[in-house]
Amino acid sequence: MIAPTLTAQEFGERGDAIYDRVIRPVAEPSQNGKFVVINIDTGSFEIDKDEMAASLRLREREPQSVGRQWFRMVGKPYAHQRLGFRHRSVK
Question: Do 74 and 21 meet the contact criterion of CB atoms below 8 Å apart?
Fold first, then answer.
């Protein structure tokens, strides 16, 4: 079942809910630090130290997951700690 268009917040909330309900109990702490990619429509997921490898495996199993994948790092509330551009002065 494919969910209707979601806001960015709803998309994230759905991904996090699946993580908390399905993945956390089986993945933590043995998989800490690896990426988990979740199909927010089906709850299917892949875990790998390489986020692209996990994404491609999920996409191979479920082609409809393209654009419906939520990325997260096992044991952390995010996939990447920092988003966006940071200006650093050159010395």
Answer: no
pLDDT tens track for 53-71? 999 999 999 999 999 999 9
The structural domain count of the chain equals 1
Say what the alpha-carbon torsion angle 73, 47, 23, 77 is, to the nearest 10 degrees. Answer: 10
Provide the whole-model pTM: 0.81
Domain that residue 17 falls in: 8-73
Whole-Å CA distances, 57 to 9, 48, 73, 79? 25, 10, 16, 17
Cα→Cα distances 45→62, 85, 86, 90, 91, Å: 10, 29, 31, 41, 44
